[in-house]
Amino acid sequence: MHTKSFNMVLESISKFIRTQLPAYLKKLPVPETIGEIARLSVADWFRLLPLLGILALLGYLTIRPFLPKKKKQRDSLINLKIQKENPRVVNEIDIEDLRCSNVCYCRCWRSKTFPVCDRSHIKHNELTGDNVGPLILKKKTL
Of 1, 31, 35, 88, which one's alpha carbon is 20 to 30 angstroms from that of 137? Predict the structure, then answer.
């Protein structure tokens, strides 16, 4: 049953392409010179619109593989501004110096108070689709 329905659809499409499409194209007011383009009426432009749209779509699909890919971030670097003069950024915190019961440390490198987290990862995640969050150190109170 499915094959018969599919064949009917293909026959309808084929008939349309062989009969209706040539008749449509023959009736189009395709200008041959620049002067004729200027003389096209609004109705002529509306009749040309479907053909121009299809041609624009085909042109876009043809050049799309060659277009540069958009990046969500300006580059692939993670650290964009913190201690760029150093070849390697290392932060050392002595656990004995922790006075609070909870301390959050940045892992997205966007915090203005780096290495302490200022919740900049929320904006970073929204912009990039990333899922980073802070490193949370909890100190048990006795």
Answer: 88
Q: What angle do CA 7, 13, 15 make, to 5 degrees?
A: 100
Q: Buried (b) or exposed (e) across 36-72, using 16+ Cβ within 10 A?
A: eeeeeeeebeebbeeeeeeeeeeeeeeeeeeeeeeee
Pairing mode, if any, of strands 135-138 and 102-105?
antiparallel
Complete domains list, the chain, with CATH: 2-66 (no CATH), 72-142 (3.40.5.90)
> What is the model's pLDDT at position 118?
93
Distance, CA of 37 to CA of 45 (rounded, Å): 9
Structure tokens at 132: 């980073």
Q: Of 137, 61, 127, 58, which is closest to residue 94 (Cα–Cα)? A: 137
CA–CA separation, 73 and 34 (whole Å): 44
